[in-house]
Design goal:
With 136 residues, the protein is of the alpha/beta class. 38% of the residues lie in helices and 18% in strands.
């Protein structure tokens, strides 16, 4: 049974690059470019792992300037019944150091800075999805 990943990022280039890499490795990948799409996607097919960017532009396409961020999206998804089985990894273009403690307290399994070398992120994905779900 393949493992499913929900990849949430406002950057189409990042979504395309990482989803292509993950699909080539055998993962089933769903992508979302904003918070409301991410919450809907998580609700419709509860993924094994969610990779969330920390920042998004205002969601003006859905009738308002809701300032979504990765922590808010995670908070909404946590309200769903099966969320405890789903791991979350945050990504950011910024220096991740100021967010480490907040991410840990939010229950994230990791926090990575986006860059050319995504191998540290990929190795954590392999480690998280290689574990039995019950051991989570």
């Amino acid at each position: 049974m393949s493992r499913t990943i929900l990849l949430v990022d406002a950057s189409n280039a990042f979504l395309t690059a990482l989803s292509t890499t993950l699909r080539a490795e055998g993962y089933e990948v769903t992508t979302a470019g904003d918070g409301s799409t991410a919450v809907s996607a998580a609700r419709s097919n509860m993924p094994d792992l969610i990779i969330l960017d920390l920042y998004y532009p205002p969601d003006v396409g859905h009738g308002g300037g809701v300032p979504w961020d990765g922590f808010l999206i995670m908070e909404w998804i946590k309200r769903m019944a099966d969320f405890p089985r789903t791991r979350v990894i945050f990504t950011t273009r910024e220096n991740p150091a100021p967010f480490v403690e907040r991410a840990r307290k939010a229950g994230a399994s990791g926090l990575f800075q986006k860059g050319k070398d995504m191998s540290p992120l990929l190795s954590v994905i392999h480690r998280l999805l290689g574990e039995p779900t019950a051991a989570a």
